[in-house]
Design brief:
Length: 237
């Protein structure tokens, strides 16, 4: 009844599909169970384009050991968000007119994270946005006001430079950093106290030594007053 009344549900676990396969609940995930993953050796988990996991990559070092095997899945009504490098689906998202679900056989907490950027937190943020449960309510039932707004960079894709705009509702210390998809920090654009209002920074596609970086997908993260907002951009040469 929770899902049929417009709820959203996220489930993860190495054997989540195997245990639910054949049940009524499994049908809500728009997925099909292939196998337990036992004996399937792979090294990476790859986010598919045009999904909440787009452009996200994680190392997976479990190999084919039974202790680390995770269910292999396929999409029926749903869509594959993350696949392994052996082309098996590992995370399935399903959006209907009434509810949204995500089934994940990889346990996100067990994946190898980025070096400087918390890619796991970024991915969970993408999942929350998809499930539409990102709003935060205060204890009195009122909605907490948004104090930070980070816009999509433009142009995007870009070459050789791009503009990053954001706004603050009050004076705050700000960190604005660029990362690659391994979570390594490429460039710091801002580390200072900024006034309320709109702000604009330009990234010229170079690292801290002002050397041009290679074409590809990058992430920019804004940290303000305990909040962390991340978006992706594409440098195309």
């Amino acid at each position: 009844m929770y899902l049929l009344n417009g709820g959203s549900l996220y489930l993860e676990g190495a054997d989540v599909a195997e245990h639910l396969n054949g049940t009524t609940l499994f049908d809500y995930f728009g997925a099909s169970y292939i196998n337990s993953g036992l004996g399937l050796d792979f090294n990476d988990l790859i986010g598919l384009d045009d999904t909440p996991a787009s452009s996200v990559y994680f190392d997976y070092n479990g190999g084919s050991d039974a202790h680390y095997s995770i269910d292999a899945l396929d999409a029926q009504e749903g869509e594959i968000f993350l696949k392994s490098d052996d082309e098996k689906g590992r995370v399935i998202g399903n959006e209907t007119a009434v509810y949204k679900t995500i089934m994940s056989s990889p346990v996100i907490g067990a994946l190898k994270d980025g070096v400087d950027l918390n890619l796991k937190a970024y991915l969970m943020g993408q999942y929350i946005d998809f499930l539409n449960t990102g709003g935060t309510a205060a204890g009195n039932g009122e909605i907490t006001p948004i104090i930070v707004s980070l816009k999509q960079n433009y142009p995007n894709p870009f070459n050789p430079s791009t503009i990053i705009d954001f706004s603050l509702s009050e004076n705050q210390p700000v960190l604005l950093d660029i990362f690659n998809l391994k979570g390594q920090k490429i460039r710091s654009l801002a580390n200072e106290i900024l006034t309320s209002g709109s702000h604009r920074f330009i990234w010229d596609g170079t690292d801290e030594q002002r050397k041009p970086v290679s074409s590809g997908i990058y992430l920019y993260r804004l940290q303000v007053a305990g909040k962390s907002l991340t978006r992706k951009m594409v440098l195309a040469k």
